[in-house]
Amino acid sequence: MPKAVSILFGALFTVVIAYALGRVLLQRLRVKLTREEELLFGFVAGAPLLSLLIFTLASLHLIYDGVLFVLGLAAVGYAWKQRAFSLSSERLPALPRLWQWIFWPVYTVFAVICGIYAMAPEWSPDGSSYHLGVLAHYYRAHGFVKLQSNMYANLSQGVEMLFLNAWAYGRHSAAALVHCAFLLTLPLLMLRYGQRMAMPAVGAAAALFTFLCPVIMVDGASAYIDVAVVCVLFAVYYLCEIDAPPLLIGLLAGFCYAMKYTAFLAVVYVVLRFAWRRRWKDLAVLAVPAAIMILPWVARNWIWFGNPVSPLFNAWFPNPWVHVSFEQDYQRYMRFYNGLTSYWQLPMELTVRGQILGGFLGPLFLLTPLALLALLGLRKPAARRALAAAALFALPYAANVGTRFLIPVVPFAAFALAAALPGITLPVLALAHAALSFPDMPARYADTYAWRIGNIPLRQALRLQSEESWFRYKWPQYRVARMVEEKTKPGDVVFSFPSIAESYTTREIRVSFQSGPNAVLRDYLLIAQLSDLQPIERTTFRFPRQSLSGVRAVQTNKPAAGTEDSHDIWSISEFRVQDEGRELRRAGGWRLNARPNPWGVQKAFDNWPITRWRGWQWIEPGMYVEVDFGQPTMTDAVVLEASTDQYAVRLKIQGRDAAGVWKDLPAKAQKTGLAPPLGLRGAAMEEFRRAGVTHLLVREDDYLWEDYGRNAWLWGIREIGVSDISHLYKLE
Amino acid sequence: MRPVLLIATLALAGCVKYPEPYRPPIQRRPMEITETNKLGHFIYMNAPNATHHFVADVLVDLNDGNWRWTLKSPTLQFVLPSTQAMRLRADLTVAELTFEQTGPVKITVHVGGHLLDTIEFAKPGQRVWEKAVPAEWLTAGGPVLVRLEIDKLWTAPADGVKRGFILTSIGFVQ
Question: What angle do CA B116, B119, B123 make, to 5 degrees?
Answer without folding.
Answer: 175
